[in-house]
Amino acid sequence: MAMCITAILMMVIIMDEFLWRAGAAGLGLAVIAGPLGSFVVWRRLAFFGDALAHSALLGLALGFMLQIEPALAIAVLCAAFALILTGMLSRAKLPPDTLLSIAAFTTLSLGLIALAFVETLRVDLISYLFGDILSVTRADVMLVWGGALLALAVLIAIWRPLLAASVDEDLARVEGGDTGRVRLAFVLLLALVVALAMKIVGVLLVTALLVIPAAASRRFASGPEAMAIYASIIGAVAVVGGLFASLKFDTPSGPSVVVAAAAIFAATLLFKRRA
Amino acid sequence: MTGYAIEGRGLVKRFGDRVVVDHVDIGAKPGEIVTLIGPNGAGKTLLLKMLLGLVPPDRGTVVRSPGLRVGYMPQKLAIDPNLPISVARFVGLAGKGNVVASLETAGVADMARAPMAGLSGGELQRVLLARALMRDPQLLVLDEPAQGVDVTGQDALYALVGKLRDKTNCAVLLVSHDLHLVMARSDRVVCLNTHVCCTGQPETVGRDPAFAALFGARAGESLALYRHHHDHVHDTHGHVHHGHSHDGHHHG
């Protein structure tokens, strides 16, 4: 009898291990996406984050060609692209959204072309565009959590100057803040998180996981830290809910997580916003 | 050496072919209230930003007395409505200083816990002033401090700035395109319309034809503005203005 129960339990554990890994990786991402996404919203960098995410595919292709760990290749390429884009935005005469659109679609197209040369990847394209959270390995979980905690530590270290620069850049500079350096650190963190999120929600959905939980938590928060923490919690709920739905209704996992986040956001609209 | 807390010499800023700030000399000494007046688009804000080091000038230099502590009150606040933050927290972002004391001095001690998003125009101005006071400034730079504030509120705000100057002997550089209340409290007025039209004590500047032209330009409509341009033909061959005639006035 006891052996029977043990056997059933074992089966449940084995069957669901991929789900546990998916959940663990998704939660790791939610932890950093909350505070980072809040800054994306405050600094109006949603398009910037999206442009970065679109370049991730190019990083993936280069990673395969040069035989480097894909997450590392994506992180490095996104970081380089983030720096170039920041420089271009400060000099360009074009409106930022136009410039970011050009950059996003150019890098996405370059990425798709580059991937076409890597035969083995062509089949998996959909999973890189929209994520394949259920194929997450144990190593991926470690990578996501390691990266997320590192990013969180850096974010906490630069929190005050970053917040001051996000509230009003001119004021922060007059008060002696090195807003340029803080901005650079922030976009590098964004690049890192895009690389981490690629496998979980995919290139096209990364920004959703940054922006939607933050936007949803705004309604309840009366301070910046509260908004960041609530965003993490909302992101975590969306990950768990999305995965559950994905399992139950056999829907793709990345989009399911995003739809869960959007559903939470829609529900928050019923509440009165705090000022 | 010059006795100025901050001084800009020969400042020039172009946007493309258009000269927006044209060889401007300006300075403020400790304890002095210098008011920059001029119509919209005269380059007032840009001049302030060059002095503050926020915008690099195309030509000219800015000299600050060593270790100068600056308090800046911007015209607008770029804060995103999606960023929830209380007044006390906002003022505290200055890093140093006493939040409660600053809020008290600015007359908004009771607003400490209020969210920034819900402030009226007048309250926001005072909160911005409180933040500017956080670092015990030796130079206060105020960009249109009375914008969106009613006349009584404006008078009170300028009276407060005057009191602060008396108490701390800080230099005050303020921008306005509104004159009535400003004039009475300024030690020196600089009329700016890309170049310095005239500068001096309020009473003498008030009698200057260039000032009258500027003043008329504000009150009048586009015709007056057009006339104003013609009043300044003499300036096309005399851009550079030397000397800060502290007593009396200088007409460019």
Characterize this entry briefly.
The complex is a heterodimer of chains A (275) and B (252). With 275 residues, chain A is an all-alpha fold.
Give a structural overview:
The complex is a heterodimer of chains A (275) and B (252). Chain A is mainly α and 275 residues long. Chain A has one domain (20-268): ABC transporter involved in vitamin B12 uptake, BtuC (Orthogonal Bundle), CATH 1.10.3470. Chain A is built from 13 helices and no strands. Chain A has helices at residues 2-42, 46-66, 70-91, 96-116, 119-122, 125-130, 138-157, 159-167, 169-174, 179-201, 206-217, 224-249, 253-268. The model of chain A has no long low-confidence stretch (mean pLDDT 88). Chain B folds into 2 domains: 6-69 and 137-251, 3-Layer(aba) Sandwich (Rossmann fold); 80-136, no CATH class. Helices cover 34% and strands 25% of the residues of chain B. Chain B has helices at residues 44-52, 87-92, 99-105, 121-133, 151-168, 180-185, 202-207, 209-219, 222-231, and strands at 6-15, 18-28, 33-37, 59-64, 70-73, 139-143, 171-176, 188-193, 195-200, 249-251. A 7-stranded mixed beta sheet of chain B has the order 5-6-7-3-8-9-10, sandwiched between helices. A 3-stranded antiparallel beta sheet of chain B has the order 2-1-4, covered by helices on one side. The radius of gyration of chain B is 18 Å and the shape is globular. The two termini of chain B are 25 Å apart. The chains are: A mainly alpha (275), B alpha/beta (252).
CATH fold node name of the largest domain in chain B? Rossmann fold
The ordered string of helix (H) and strand (E) elements of chain A is HHHHHHHHHHHHH
Label the structural class of chain B.
alpha/beta
Share of helix among residues of chain A? over 70%
Number of domains of chain B: 2
Task: Using the coordinates shown, work out and report the CATH topology of chain A.
Answer: ABC transporter involved in vitamin B12 uptake, BtuC
Oligomer, anyone? heterodimer
The end-to-end span of chain B amounts to: 25 Å
Average pLDDT level of chain B: 80
CATH superfamily of chain A: ABC transporter involved in vitamin B12 uptake, BtuC
Task: Let me know the average pLDDT of chain A.
Answer: 88
Adjacency order of strands in the biggest sheet of chain B: 5-6-7-3-8-9-10
CATH architecture level-2 label of the largest domain in chain B: 3-Layer(aba) Sandwich
